[in-house]
Design goal:
There is one protein chain. About 35% of the residues lie in helices and about 15% in strands. The chain is of the alpha+beta class. It has three domains: about 70 residues, Alpha-Beta Complex (Aspartate Aminotransferase, domain 1), CATH 3.90.1150; about 60 residues, no CATH class; about 60 residues, Aspartate Aminotransferase, domain 1 (Alpha-Beta Complex), CATH 3.90.1150. A three-stranded antiparallel sheet has the order 1-2-3, with no helix packed on it. Keywords: Pyridoxal phosphate.
């Protein structure tokens, strides 16, 4: 695979980034990524890291997958971009494939570019269909950078922006480690079963999760700063604490660990 950025002036790029880019609320990673390969990303100095940014669902099959690259090249040549009021065979074919595997009732598709746009657009038919106008979100949620999406999530960084979209409500995020519900009475025991989706991929994720959880537990037994390990499938979390008894968070330790790992 070609590496077009190997000889890039990284110092100049960093200065340009500082001058020209706004962040998404937190600082950018200190190292600029110059190449990708499957599950790895690489910096200009040649440091390779496994990409654990699982929020980017479009890269779950790995960066630069040959089949994806080939399809992108073909469609960039024939249908790189159209006005949204026009449709083409690839759009229709993808919509048909999606609706064919979706549950009954989800028989229409609406294509957008980002998760924030998707959430923004989804609230409109939801309000229209239910005739209800309030949105309930979780306190530690992340839904995007658009107006309605920002209004449905709750962060300290919301200060000094004025009012969010009217009708947004926050619920405490479930957290088994720092739980505010110490003694359950059964009134909030809910479970949702999703019986559709990528079954083979989910089965593989389940197998790999056993190994991932075992290795994270091994690290927990070795390092006192790991207070809790939890997760499902390959979506795992490690709670960094200063004291396991009090469960006091240790953001400074977490930041140091992150820097050492170059995550």
């Amino acid at each position: 695979m070609s590496r077009p950025y190997d000889n890039t002036n990284i110092d100049q790029l960093q200065r340009d980034a500082d001058d020209c880019l706004l962040t998404y609320g937190i600082a950018f990673h200190p190292k600029i990524i110059t190449s990708i390969d499957g599950i790895y990303v690489e910096t200009a100095s040649g440091h390779r890291m496994m990409d654990f940014t699982s929020g980017q669902m479009s890269t779950l099959i790995g960066h630069g997958h040959p089949e994806v690259v080939n399809v992108v090249q073909i469609h960039a040549q024939h249908f790189d971009h159209l006005f949204s009021g026009m449709i083409s065979p690839p759009v229709i074919n993808l919509a048909k494939r999606l609706t064919s595997v979706a549950p009954p009732g989800l028989d229409k598709t609406f294509f957008l570019s980002t998760g924030g746009e998707g959430n923004e657009a989804a609230t409109r038919p939801a309000k229209f269909f239910t005739r209800k106008f309030e949105i309930v979100g979780l306190a530690a949620s992340w839904h995007g950078m658009t107006g309605a999406s920002l209004g449905a999530q709750y962060h300290a960084g919301h200060s000094d922006y004025g009012l969010n979209m009217i009708g947004n409500l926050a619920l405490p995020t479930p957290n088994s480690y720092h739980s505010i519900f110490r003694k359950g009475d059964g009134t909030y025991d809910w479970e949702t079963e999703l019986n559709y989706g990528c079954r083979r991929q989910c089965a593989r994720s389940k197998r790999l999760s056993v190994k991932l959880q075992a290795e994270l537990k091994r690290l927990q037994s070795r390092y006192g700063c790991i207070g809790n390990v939890r997760g499902r499938g390959l979506m795992a979390g490690v709670e960094i604490v200063s004291d396991r008894k009090t469960k006091a968070s240790a953001p400074g330790v977490g930041a140091t660990v992150s820097q050492k790992m170059d995550l």
